[in-house]
Known about the structure:
By secondary structure, the chain is mainly alpha-helical. The protein contains 23 helices and 3 strands. The protein has helices at residues 11-34, 41-64, 92-115, 122-141, 145-163, 170-201, 206-210, 223-240, 249-252, 258-264, 269-279, 286-307, 313-334, 337-372, 392-406, 412-428, 437-461, 483-494, 512-515, 529-554, 565-571, 576-648, 655-675; strands at residues 5-6, 70-79, 82-90. A 3-stranded antiparallel beta sheet has the order 1-2-3. Strand 2 and strand 3 form a beta hairpin. Helix 14 packs antiparallel against helix 15 and helix 16 (412-428) crosses helix 20 (529-554).
Amino acid sequence: MEQLYQIQNHSTEIQLTLATVLFPFAAFITNFLVVKTASRTVGFISAICILLSLICSVILFFKIWNHAPVHEQILWFRVGNIKIYAGLLLNNLSVLMLGLVSAIALAVHIYSLAYIRHDPKFRRYFRYLSFFCFAMLALVVADNLLLMYAFWELVGFASYLLIGFWFTWEKAVRASKKAFVMNRIGDLGFLIGIMILFTHFHTFDLIQLFGNPNNFGANGLSGTWLTVAGICFFLGATAKSAQFPLHTWLPDAMEGPTAVSALIHAATMVAAGVFLLARVYPVFNADVKMIITITGTFTAFMAATIALTQNDLKKILAYSTISQLGFMVAAMGIGAYSSALFHLATHAFFKCLLFLSAGVIIHEMQHLKEKLHLDIDPQNILYMGGLRKILPFTFVVCIIAALALIGFPLTSGYLSKDGILIQAFEWAEGRSVLYKIIPISILITSWLTAFYIARLLFKVFWGESGLKEMIPTLELHPSAENKFFTVPMLFLSVFCLFPVFSLNPFLYEQSWLFRGFLTANYFERENIYHTLIPAAVNLFTIPVVYLAYLRYVKQSINWFPKTGFLFRLSYNHWYIDRFYQNQVVKTVVWISKKFYGFDRLVIDGFVNLLAKTGLFLSRISAWIDQYLVDSTVNFIAFRIRDLGSFARSFQTGKVQQYLLTMLIFILGIYLLKTLI
Length: 676
């Protein structure tokens, strides 16, 4: 009998891990099978369970962080002589993600109690939310690639359900299908990567695969197959973390509830791609890392330029998310492993706060729309303005989150983003001029980030309301902000400030999180970049924000007209969606129709011809059987019957008749003999 396979005996840690993962699943089962009403009980059950998960994950964090990894397994199944184990792997990365996911999820659960309270599908919403959290939490502690892939797929399925939650809306249905299909492309790459490693090493175990530095390189998997495997894993991350060219599903995913957007686009589904890169990092050789770097840098820049001109509040934040994920991916490519994970953590809090703030703003605009009987889009920032007067708390926390996104001093975003920028310039140092494009692009993207988030803030909170163009006498009054909104937003705003991550507000190197993931090739603080880059970023950020203020609040300059090629390029998302729709989708549909026609006319025609031929031959066979075979058999049967009837007429039972018959028979023979 197979016994439990252990590296160390850590029963308490394993129990805490199982509790962290299974509490949301218990909420899902309870809400699915036990609770039969659409009351708030369903939401409170889910919120309490995710709170318990957070408590367990915090305890687990302090037990594991910067200590020896914990790894326990049991035999799962066999393939011939190969044994496949399933288990839990706890290290710094695992416990960081457990805490991050459960903390963000708790904020979203509490927020959702108010946000979704009037929806008739209230119970279904919290079922999906709990199931999503279970899948994501299980993903980050799985100890082998096969188990990771299983929960990776469950995360994708749960996100499909949540994005398409309002399934009576055509846009939501199409968005959920788009997210599902585009993520399947990445998942195929992930699966191929797993199969390549399994074929070479005959194991899915993360410790056996990536714990030995000799597994990859000259003494292990190398050359073309190593490059292919790395590209395949990166393809999986590209789709999940919405990187070019598989990024277009994420802005459309805004059709789901805003609280879902906060969860999926902050610390869970989109972060899973970066988590995958971190988990399988040793498999990436120099060629693949360069591909990762270029992809992340281009995605960050492209998405930031698109966010500059969008008017949908949630889509601006969606493209912001894509851009920030590009920062993380580029950081992974240049070897800034610690900074990438640091930014993943800080981004989770300030982006979730921005989405929850957007939810409050949209909620208020929807209220005004219904109250004033207006035909407007409550997510369009052109109808907003002056909202700081009626939503003062949301205004303050939104400013905090925006400053963290910009990377303003004294915020968590300043520490994590500076780490990426500085290490990008250090990476390019000593290389050819072309390599300098990477850090310069990241730096420019940082300034673009400051401009588009400043534009959003000024459009939403400053100036006059856009509704006054329709109702000149409109007066806005302060609105009572629901505590189920304000409490989680206050909680998140605390994590947007520097003390949570570092007591030194200016040195990212002193952050406990950054130091928890330091690699051997870490650059010490030994060059001018550590001083020059933060100064350049912030000194130029201030005039960029002021420029946005002049353009959108004072309206004293008109430097960015809504005309010209660059505006159209940005406003139309670089025409990528249109390209996919006109070239890819239509080509696939055209090919599908041709295959359908071939199938219907040729394949089905041939099959139908065979069927008709068979039917014709069967009819001929039936005729032959009926009129020839059956007639012959019946004729013989009838003649035999007649002969039998004739012979039976002689069987009377009278001896005299038998003697007479015999006499006639003998006489007949005698006469026949005589005549012959």
